[in-house]
Write a structure and sequence with these properties.
This protein has 259 residues and is mostly beta strands. The chain has three helices and 15 strands. It has one domain: Thrombin, subunit H (Beta Barrel), CATH 2.40.10. Helices cover 9% and strands 45% of the residues. The strands form two sheets. Strands 1, 2, 3, 4, 5, 6, 7, 8 and 9 form a nine-stranded mixed sheet that branches. The protein has a six-stranded antiparallel β-barrel with strand order 10-11-12-15-14-13.
């Protein structure tokens, strides 16, 4: 089976970050996506980008990738599973404490016989396109509520719309809002925009907006509150992904191949 279009290839650039909580407390799921950064001497740095709050659990986590068949095709039946522990020195955090982005250096994985795709940093939007407006459709890929195709180890693509003026930093933060049902497990999902057949990375899902509502019951005057999803998600702008890459390169003392 061949996967040629971006809409299919991107499924192999995204991986589930599974964090077993231990002691019978279940597990937590986040999303990560791979970014390729060309560096000098015809090499590349591969970073698994996600949110700080996904990586900051201080618990070992599990990544799962597809093995590669002869002929270069992905095996949908065989996975390569990697348990990552003692990873504090492998995580590179955005230098601004208020920007919920971090990256794991997974360059060594590309020495193995895996079918993995990566998003090139040239795909990062700089938000200068005049057609990037509120109401434009966006796509994001991840693991909402931990759901995915378990048989083939593939994530889920969802879509929505830009709901704020993207060139304006919402609330003074380098974020914009999307009208989309963002659920737990989607944290770290890459958000794309398709302009004239060319996909650009607009940012990374960070959180979903919730509304709290006070309720009363007829049981002895008991009251409480419930949380209800507003159907709005917060997306950290791709400009911050670029800042994260630059900071990581500096810490690793690497130069890009352009110099």
């Amino acid at each position: 089976m061949y996967f040629r279009g971006f809409q299919e290839q991107v499924f192999f650039a995204v991986t589930r970050i599974l964090i077993p909580m231990g002691a019978g407390d279940g597990e937590s799921t986040g999303t990560g996506f791979i970014v390729e950064v060309p560096v000098k001497n015809e090499r590349s740095l591969f970073l698994l980008v996600s949110n700080k709050h996904v990586y900051d659990s201080n618990m070992p986590f599990i990544l799962s990738f597809h093995k590669k068949k002869e002929g270069g095709r992905p095996s949908l039946e065989e996975n390569y599973t990697l348990t990552v522990s003692n990873y504090s020195e492998q995580i590179y955090r955005h230098p601004d404490d208020n920007v919920d982005l971090a990256a794991l250096n997974i360059s060594s994985l590309f020495l193995k016989n895996l079918y993995v795709r990566a998003i090139n940093q040239t795909m990062l939007s700089d938000f200068s396109n005049e057609r990037l407006l509120p109401g434009e459709e966006i796509w994001f890929v991840g693991y909402p509520e931990g759901l995915f195709d378990k048989k083939h180890n593939l994530p889920i693509l969802r879509r929505g719309y830009i709901s704020t003026v993207p060139k304006v930093d919402f609330g003074g933060r380098k974020v914009f809002m999307i009208d989309a049902h963002v659920h737990c497990g989607s944290s770290g999902s890459p958000v794309f925009w398709n302009y004239k057949g060319k996909f650009e990375l607009l940012g990374v899902v960070s959180e979903t907006m919730m509304r709290r509502q006070n309720i009363k019951t007829d049981l002895i005057g008991m009251s409480g509150s419930v949380s209800q999803a507003l159907g709005l998600g917060v997306v950290i702008k791709s400009i911050c992904v670029k800042e994260l890459i630059d900071s990581t390169l500096k810490q690793l003392e690497l130069d890009t191949d352009d110099g």
